[in-house]
Amino acid sequence: MPVHVVCTAVLRQEYCLLSCRLQAGVQDSFLTFEVYKDEITMQLVDKACKVLGVPADIVLREFGEYFFEFCKRSGYDHMLRTLGGNLYEFIENLDALHSYLSLSYQEMNAPSFRVEKNEDGSMHLHYYSDRRGLCHIVPGIIGAAALDFFNIEISMKIVNQTEEEERTGKKEHIVFLVTQTPLFPCKERKEFSSSSQCLVDSEKQIENQLSKEDLEKVKNANGDRGNSVCPVKKSHWKTLRGIITLGRGKLLRGFDPVYPKSLWIDTKTFCNGLPFHMVFDKELKVKQAGTRREMMPESWKERPMLELRGQMMWMESLQCMLYLCSPLLRTLHELEERQMHIADIAPHDVTRDLILLNQQRLAEMELSNQLERKKEELRILSKHLEEEKKKTEALLYAMLPQHVANQLKEGKRVEAGEFKECTILFSDVVTFTNICAQCEPIQIVLMLNSMYLRFDRLTTVHDVYKVETIGDAYMVVGGVPVPVPTHAERVANFALGMIMAAKGVQNPVSGNPIQIRVGIHTGPVLAGVVGEKMPRYCLFGDTVNIASRMESHGVPSKIHLSSSAYQCLKYKNFEITERGEIEVKGKGKMHTYFLIRNKSATENEIMGRPMKDLDSGNESVQSFPEGKTETIPSSHQPATQTQQKKDQTPTIAMKYVDGPTDAQNSLKRRNQMKVGDSTGKTCDSKSDGSLHGNQHADDGPRPPNQGRVKPAAEEPQNRNVRSNFCTLV
């Protein structure tokens, strides 16, 4: 198998590197093996040699052929074909190509080439490069170009290798001996052998039409051209073919030029037309130069050095070298640094056009870079805007239900919705008025903030909606704005969590844990948004009044239930005691109950804390020992670190069964799990309110349970509500 076929997989990695650099805008010119680091390149070559088991020069040569094809595919094909009509001219103009490309890519570190003709038709190719060890790429690239562009095969052999001291450091100088062998196409060979008689007749006809003098001149011209390309003598038929194609310009360079007998130009005009030319002899003594001063002014020594570029021509008759050059300037900035002007450059010199075109290109590149920077800035701003938008939406969704907030953002009117059944909870702090009278305002704020942070966390655990806080009063609802069948269980567990959480908040007056009253009622409500400025999602109906009465007629550290709330919870694994009939302001006598505990859930489940291995889950709410309360700092003390640590505790949502699928899965789990109650007896947790589901029903509210005791119809009585809202963050 050929080596280049085996090398394909290894060289593909290098091709990917080059492709990435091209896409980044740092293009490689022809014969410029630009990679990120030479060390990486040599490591890649060493690994390829070990994998393939071949010397490094073969791998580099094959890569040179591959790199030539890559350059053609990258858009350099047309440019390379126009460098010369034969291999000698092609190599001779490579430095000019690199010089042109360096105007656009100033960081390009290209090699340099110099070629010499030999009498036998061979050439000596001089290769100069700062990159050591990569000279074997040159035979691969030059050989591929010769075969593709000129249909010849070459062989290159290193005849000399040295290092030369340069102004920029040491350069590797490699001399190759290049021999050429033209290829005779198979198609031409067949045509020539099959129609030899026809070719002879054509040859005779052409010879009769042309004079002997013209024919001899064309033969000599073509012979000279053939010797410059290869040592093989051209056939007579090749000469005739060249004459036939004269009209297409293929033998124009074969005719001898005609020179004037004398130059009709004076010395001043010649020097002004070529201001940067130079003539020197074999001893490098300058015989003639363009417009110049005898001595360089002292002030000019501070200017940057002016570099020249051009071509050298040997004048045999004068035994001198003519250097036709022009300033090596790329931009207007370099021109200004040397205190020069466009007028200082010869009118016919293309350097003028190159400077202006390059300046235009640099301006376009700068504009493109500015657009890229602005694009990146816009991307960052868009990212920050999206983050701020999320924060704003999170704040908005904390104040209003998400679907209501979205309707308000779209400028739509939010219609009031009727919920046939939901559960409402009210709570307040016992003796809050006395506490306010005996404490500083900042202590009240800190106490309420500490308590409300705990309560807000519980709303996430049990997925209930916080309606509002009015002073020390805290109001939540279950089943609104998203109806769920387990609204009563959620609010009941939330109330149990409130009693537990309140034990961790200290009364700033007595130093003991604060006490709260909790009241719960179940019934229908009407919910909607009220007002345009600071809109609030409010609940309306007699259910709100009764829930407020349950709280105001409650007992400290107790959860007071109405009869309708009791009907929703009595078969849901809650321990409930009967309070009896009480006189309720504005409602008359009502039969009420106290919620004691959840018989199938642990404290950690209710509080949304991570489960512990030693959780028994059998203790009632009231049986939990008094934990350490949080000390409320004075007006000059910051918040304690204990609260910060508590806020970092992950919140685990409690699971509820709200759908048929959840109920089936829960039933399977209940068949495998028994829960012990506080007396040591085991009870099967097979009620409809078992806490193992995690889906919420999105359909409408279900009708009231059958057999539920409804309160007697009474005249509604508005509750005295303060209008000042205290939002504590």
List keywords for this structure.
single chain; 729 residues; alpha+beta; 8-stranded mixed beta sheet; 4-stranded antiparallel beta sheet; 18 strands; elongated; disordered N terminus; coiled coil; GTP-binding; heme binding; lyase
List the helices and strands and how they pair.
Layout: H1 3-23, H2 38-52, H3 56-81, H4 87-92, H5 94-104, E1 112-117, E2 123-129, H6 137-149, E3 152-166, E4 169-182, H7 186-194, H8 196-209, H9 212-229, H10 236-244, H11 267-273, E5 278-281, E6 286-289, E7 308-315, E8 320-327, H12 332-337, H13 351-399, H14 402-409, E9 417-429, H15 432-438, H16 441-462, E10 465-470, E11 473-478, H17 487-502, E12 516-530, E13 536-540, H18 542-552, E14 559-561, H19 563-569, E15 574-584, E16 588-598, H20 603-607, H21 641-647, H22 660-670, E17 675-676, E18 682-683
Parallel strand pairs: 12-14
Antiparallel strand pairs: 1-2, 2-4, 3-4, 5-6, 5-8, 7-8, 9-11, 9-12, 10-11, 12-13, 14-16, 15-16, 17-18
Helix pairs in contact: 1-2, 1-3, 3-6, 16-17
Structure, described:
Residues 423-551 form the Guanylate cyclase domain. It comes from Cyanoderma ruficeps. The chain has 729 residues and is of the alpha+beta class. Helices cover 41% and strands 19% of the residues. It has helices spanning 3-23, 38-52, 56-81, 87-92, 94-104, 137-149, 186-194, 196-209, 212-229, 236-244, 267-273, 332-337, 351-399, 402-409, 432-438, 441-462, 487-502, 542-552, 563-569, 603-607, 641-647, 660-670; strands spanning 112-117, 123-129, 152-166, 169-182, 278-281, 286-289, 308-315, 320-327, 417-429, 465-470, 473-478, 516-530, 536-540, 559-561, 574-584, 588-598, 675-676, 682-683. Strands 9, 10, 11, 12, 13, 14, 15 and 16 form an 8-stranded mixed β-sheet that branches. The protein has a 4-stranded antiparallel β-sheet with strand order 1-2-4-3. A 4-stranded antiparallel β-sheet has the order 6-5-8-7, with no helix packed on it. Helix 1 runs antiparallel to helix 2, helix 3 packs across helix 6 (137-149) and helix 16 (441-462) packs antiparallel against helix 17 (487-502). The longest helix is centred in the middle third of the chain and has 49 residues, at 351-399. The radius of gyration is 48 Å and the shape is elongated. Mean pLDDT is 75; it is low at 1-6, 17-37, 188-200, 222-232, 244-252, 613-646 and 666-729.
